[in-house]
Amino acid sequence: MNDTFRRVLAAAVFSAGSLTAGAVLAQSITIAIGSEPSTLDPQLRDDGGERQVNDNIYETLLARTPTGELVPSLAAEMPKQIDDLTWEFTLREGVTFHNGEPFNADAVVYSVKRVVAPENASEQMAYLGTIAGAEKVDDYKVRITTSGPDPILPSRMYWMKIVPPKHAEEADLAAQPVGTGPYKFVSWNRGSDITLEANADHRDGAPDVEQVTYRFVTEPGTRLSGLMAGEFDVIVNLPPEFTATVPKFAAVRGIETSTIILSTDNEATRDPRVRQALNIAIDRKAIADNLFLGYAEVAKGQLIHPNAFGFNKSIEAYPYDPDRARQLLAEAGAEGSTIELLGESGRWLKDREVIEAVAGYWTEIGLKVDVQIEEFSRYLDRLFDMKVRPDAYFVLNSNELFDADREMSFAYEAGAGGASNSEKELAETIRAARTETDLEERSTLYDKLTAKLHEEAFDVPLFNHQDIYGMSARMEWQPRVDGKLIVKEMSVAE
Amino acid sequence: MGSFILRRLWQGLLVVLGVTLTVFVVTRVFGDPVSLMLPLTATAEQRAAFAHEIGLDRPLLVQFLGFMRDLVALDFGNSLWQRRPAIEVVFERLPNTLLLIVAGLGFAILASIPLGIIAALRPGGIVDRLTVSLGLIGLSMPQFWVGLLFIVIFAVQLKLLPTSGMGTPAHLILPALTLGLTPLARLTLLVRSSMIDELNQQYIKAARAKGLGLSRILGVHALRNVLISFLTLTGWELISILAGYTVVVETVFAWPGLGLTAMQAIQRGDLFLMQAIVFSIAFLIVLINIALDIAFKMIDPRINLN
Amino acid sequence: MSSASTSSLPLALSGGTRLAGGFLRELWHDKPAAIGLLVILLIIAMAIFAPLIAPYDPAAQSLIARLKPPAWLAGGSWAHPLGTDHLGRDVLSRVIWGSRATLLIGFSVVLLAGTFGVIVGLWAGYAGGRVDSLVMRLVDIQVSFPGILLILLIVSVIGPSITTMIVVLAVTNWMVYARQVRGIVMSVRQTAYVEAAEVIGCRPGRVIFRHILPNLFSPILTVAILEFTNIVLAEAAISFLGLGVQPPATSWGLDVAAARDYIFIAWWLITFPGLSIVATVLSVNLFANWVRITADPQEREKRFARAQAAKRRRARGDQATVPAE
After folding, report:
1. What is the pLDDT of residues B195-252, one digit of tens each?
2. How many CB pairs under 8 A join A and B?
3. Of chain C residues 45-104, which have a CB less than 8 A from chain B?
């Protein structure tokens, strides 16, 4: 398009000054997120939009480095375990909330009690699980108690944001967030955007980006349009096809792993040889390259996420060997049998495509595949129905706590979550590992579990997925493995 | 006039009652609000408690009366998604939708009159043919498609206007144009055809023969006679925009109005918010209808409105 | 349309086949309308013979042939004349199959709503009195319902499907027919010959069939054709919003929605389904315009007069504004 023409047209359409957003303040950026926060109260909802904003306003006792390592944040050091049910945290001194309230043991005790209080029915208890209460030892020492032995309590504390007690009692935390973090709340235009500004008094110094605006844009296509038009600096969930189109992008191994859980009880999938055949029939590399354009890694023969505690380093990815798969089927006498494959569509990146591709590979080794794509809530009903298990179902697991217990309790513990087996001994080992506080012993338990699951092919682990972010040309940012948008880690190139 | 307005209000009340009944039957009889609104992981006790809270354990008639009573008090319950009164969300988003409609329909009204008149001056001429053809094409294009084309052309290729959201006046241009396109086409075609009819009337011919200026003839005589049908169609366009086409345009442009909120409420199973939106819109439509009738009566007292 | 017909007026005199022939000849003079009808027939044929015409199964995916451009662009091939979508499905086949959903829903709704509306209108108009005022009050009330919004609410509660969509659209669109029919019945009943028929004791059924129905045919046809375009646009909009036709079934509106994420790298994905909607609605509109004028004696006269005026102007040499034909 001719430049002069563009200018004339611009003048004709709208004559008052600059039209498109951005480039007003050099150090101000706009991030397009997928959904508007339902509230800005950091303790009540399990809401991705709320987290994306509040992760910058509030802080937690422990944090993670961009690569996933757990480090002290509001705590001065890593916690000490006093006994099976008690952990002691020493707090950082000299920290204040944005409104001037001091950060101390009272704030921590208040925050813990607020989030676990039954009347608050916090959805975050899904992450905070075993936490029972907190008591103050002195102004900068707090003991946190759990309802049972919990080796991953430190990971849980990375999910609990600390709120200022006085403000929380007197003001509306849902609309007026006040934390200790590197950004302060400025405004919330409901339905449109939220603006934060840098907290110059933060202990790490003022962050690079002075002002950040979050825009709520549900449609991926609209987010992309905004990025291409220069309105946004960072957009989430960029489809892999666009990495070549956008000004800049960054990809990082996220916390999601896809798999297909096989039923060990159903007629069609009872024989371990059949289950192994199902595994080696799939050319995972081809799917990762063609469908995800390389932005997914072939899973290492297990559902456990590589960054999680309990990941078994000695297990290799299943090879692609359709001939051997046919042979295994023949040995099991299962040629031509029918396997139902349950799935959903639209919830996860390219879910339908993966399911169809897998079904294609299974058909190639001589099976009949009955693909059943259900609407999401109906899919969940069937996934959690313990009486009738599908032969196989596709699922994407995300591991926010970086611990193998997440996968174990969801996918393999008989009678719980979405497990498709009835092995009591397996379930008992999973429960033992969950409460084992000796880390070495715990690690050994998980290695045993993952080896058995791999050997007998309880599932068809597929991919470790990557998160892809689209960025404007001026952005400098390396995304984190935990998928959080931490603005203080971003900067703008001039 | 007074009794007339009273009768219109009564009829409006019936409309609201009809909408209430429809929504009630659909949500309570055909649908199951509990499974729609609670997460799948909700326990049996949580389900029972919620059912009790919204009165599902009472007889249907009692439920309906309670439902009506709450409506009179504008109490639609709390939005499950935003955890605050649903009506509060409606009042917050409604002005955005109205702004969009005023801009879009206003543009259509202002542009359609000159376009229609110019076309009517020489029926069969090139301007007329062009207007009619473009008008028909305008009527045939789905708004979501036009909106997407606008975004690609004006926002991404030319970088003239923002792609989505609201804020500056520039944000308003593309959604308003998209929303106004269909009414513009329909109104222009109407002005054109009524003007052709009017200009063929004897009195106009007489006035022209007497040497009255064309602009005076158009402005004073012809236009006034076109006004009633123009107003009727404008009202109808306004209602059909309110009744749904804003949803499409707001979704395409991420415009934070009532329509986009309705889609978000549906996606989140937020039935209470959806009900509040449907009622508010029904109520607005009733008001608009009454206002239109009064306007007609004022323009032409001979009109029989019964 | 303005390229007016100069064919003879005394059409009413001609009988059966000559009538049809006359109509066709008249239609031929109105080129846009003739093209409109042709396109409509093509689309209908496309829908009926979709399995024979479409080169591929519209749901067949191919991971290695994703996002291929149309044949005439670099990288395209005649294996997929209109390219492929984000799942490697053939766009041409999807456009062809998509016509089925559009036409099925359009025709079903018009038929259902039309039948119901006409019956109600006849009943109200013929019975008059209390029945009439009750029915018309109902019509008034329902006309003021927030149409699409209410449909979205209903569909989200009951669950989206083609059947739901047809039923809901029919239930919310019958009023136009009822109103129109009732108005005509009222006026026809006051004409001398119907009054006479009633006075001599003709049964109501006979009066309705012999005297009233024939008067209804052309206005109802016009309304039905115009309603059809509204339904097509409504279906596309609802499918676009994700509450209409559900995958793996296809619909033009649904395909535009699925393609919006890819508008920057694959413009053809929104273009062809979108153009199909435009072509369908535009053709129907062009044809409807002609039907309306042809069915209305007053309009026919106007058209005739206009054509004469244009001729006179041309004869005067007023060439500047009238392009040569």
Report:
1. 888 877 777 777 777 777 777 777 666 777 788 889 989 998 999 899 888 999 999 9
2. 99
3. none
Phi, psi angle pair for B77, to nearest 5°: 85, 175
**Topology annotation, domain A17-40+175-252+469-476:** D-Maltodextrin-Binding Protein; domain 2 (3.40.190)
The 8-class DSSP code of residue C158 comes to H
Residues of B in contact with C310 (CB under 8 A): 123-124
pLDDT digits (tens, 9 = 90+) for C191-216: 777 778 877 877 777 777 777 777 78
* Residues in chain A where the model's pLDDT stays below 50: 1-25
How many angstroms separate the CA atoms of C309 and B75, rounded? 63
All domains of chain C, ordered by start, with CATH?
26-52+61-296 (1.10.3720.10)
DSSP tag of A131: E
Give the predicted TM-score (pTM) of the model: 0.83
**Are C63 and A290 within 8 A, CB to CB?**
yes
Cβ-nearest to A229 among B163, B169, B256 = B163
Are residues A367 and A339 in contact, defined by beta-carbon separation less than 8 angstroms? yes
Is any Cβ of chain B less than 8 angstroms from the Cβ of C274? yes
Kindly tell me if the per-residue pLDDT of C274 is higher than 90. yes
C62-87 tens-digit pLDDT:
777 788 899 898 888 898 999 998 87
Q: How far apart are CA A269 and CA B194, in angstroms?
A: 73
CA A112, CA A161: separation in Å to the nearest integer?
A: 9
Give the residue from A224, A243, A246, A249 with the most C CB atoms within 10 Å of its CB, the best one to mutate: A224
CB contact under 8 A, A13 and B160: yes
Among partner residues C158, C282, C306, which is closest to B137 by beta-carbon distance? C282
Mean pLDDT of the residues in chain C = 82
Distances from the Cα of B18 to the Cαs of B24, B87, C130, in angstroms?
10, 20, 20
For position B1, what pLDDT does the model report? 65
Mean pLDDT of C216-241: 90
User: Which two tokens mark C139?
Assistant: 């019509």
Closest residue in chain C to residue A357, using alpha carbons only: C63
* Domain A59-170 = CATH 3.40.50.720: no
Stretch C90-103: mean pLDDT, rounded?
93
Domain ranges, ordered by start, for chain A: 3-8+253-466, 17-40+175-252+469-476, 59-170
At C226, is the secondary structure helix, strand, or coil? Answer: helix
* Binary contact (C233, B142; C-beta < 8 A): yes
Question: Could you check whether A3-8+253-466 and A17-40+175-252+469-476 share the same CATH topology?
Answer: no
Please state which of the four CATH numbers 3.40.30.10, 1.10.287.130, 3.10.105.10, 3.40.630.30 is assigned to the domain occupying A3-8+253-466: 3.10.105.10
Answer for the pair A38, A49: CB distance below 8 angstroms, yes or no.
Answer: yes
Residues on chain A touching C256 (C-beta within 8 angstroms): none
Q: Identify the CA nearest to A423 among candidates A437, A411, A406, A405.
A: A411
Chain C (256-295) residues lying within 8 Å, Cβ to Cβ, of chain A: 260-265
E-state strands within A225-322: 234-235, 248-262, 296-298
> Inter-chain contact A353–C265, Cβ cutoff 8 Å?
no
Question: Do the chains contact at B161 and A219, CB–CB below 8 Å?
Answer: no
- Is residue C64 within 8 angstroms of chain A, CB to CB? yes
Beta carbons of A83 and A146 less than 8 angstroms apart: no
Per CATH, the number for B86-299 is 1.10.3720.10
Which chain B residue lies closest to C276 (C-alpha atoms)? B141
Residue B253 distance to chain C (closest CA, Å): 12
Q: Which residues contact A71 (CB under 8 A, 6 or more apart)?
A: A62, A63, A64, A65, A78
ipTM of the complex: 0.88
Residue for token pair 């951005």: A22
Q: Which amino acid is at B217?
A: I
